[in-house]
Specification:
It contains five helices and 15 strands. Among the domains are: 33-82; 141-287, Tumour Suppressor Smad4, CATH 2.60.200. It has 292 residues and is α+β, with helices and mostly antiparallel strands. The protein has a six-stranded antiparallel β-sheet, with no helix packed on it. Strands 8-7-9-10-13 form a five-stranded mixed β-sheet, with no helix packed on it. It has a two-stranded antiparallel ribbon with strand order 1-2. The termini are far apart. The protein is rod-shaped, with a radius of gyration of 56 Å. The relative contact order is 0.08.
Length: 292
Amino acid sequence: MSNQRGGRWGPSNRPYQPSQVNEDDLAMAALLGEANKKSEEEERARKNQQYESRQNNNHRSPQNNKRQHNNNNNNNADDANNYYGRSSGDKRIVEDDTDEQRDTKRSKPSEEQQSAPPNPNKVKADFGLSGALAGDTQTGNVYNGVTLKFSEPPEARIPNTRWRLYVFRKKNPDSANKNDDGLLDTYHISRQSAYLFGRERKVADIPVDHGSLSKQHAVLQYRSLPSKQQEIGAPTKLQCKPYLMDLESTNGTFINGVRLESARYYELKRGDVLSFGASSREYVLLTEQTKK
């Protein structure tokens, strides 16, 4: 038998030598085998312990199982609170957490509270006009720095008829000169839509100086309204007529001696006599075509 072995590419010239066994390798293999065996035994013991614990839990009463379930839920809630930055001791109280709060909320008032008289000093809500809008120079009705006591209506117009006011002094029966007609002044009042009577010279169109008159006493307003005398189905005709309104004066406004109610328009007719307060002057309303 030949001692030579053939290689891949032909016979080898080196003689065949059997492999030698190292004693250190054998010792290391033995130690690794013991370690693996020990770890397998520990793993087996741990599994047996878990199995026995599970069997014991199955034999517990339903009440204990329910308590354990609630404890697990509480632990989960505490973990959620801690996750969102809230401690487990901080409880959020709502209206229905306790029976005491429900009873307090639904409790009826006592007899003393029901029989207590109302407070006479209680301030009631005031929905009246404060005057703040009228005092605003941007949105209020202000002229020459003075807040006007009236605003012209949407139907205000300048008349086509040439109206005039003739100012007379009341005749005194004891006067020596009875031929004097007493004409003091004449106002042409057809150039604008409204004329204000009063003692405030900054805003008055027809100033009056008598002490019994108010700063803004009355206003003569021209209004264009549908005519009352028109046929049915005919086009609407508008007529511009003069009206007089008292601005809540102290001593009143008069038409032919009859005192007017404040804040109401009264239609004027040709020949009406206007007077204000205790003044002795009379204002006769006429047109340009009226003959004296």
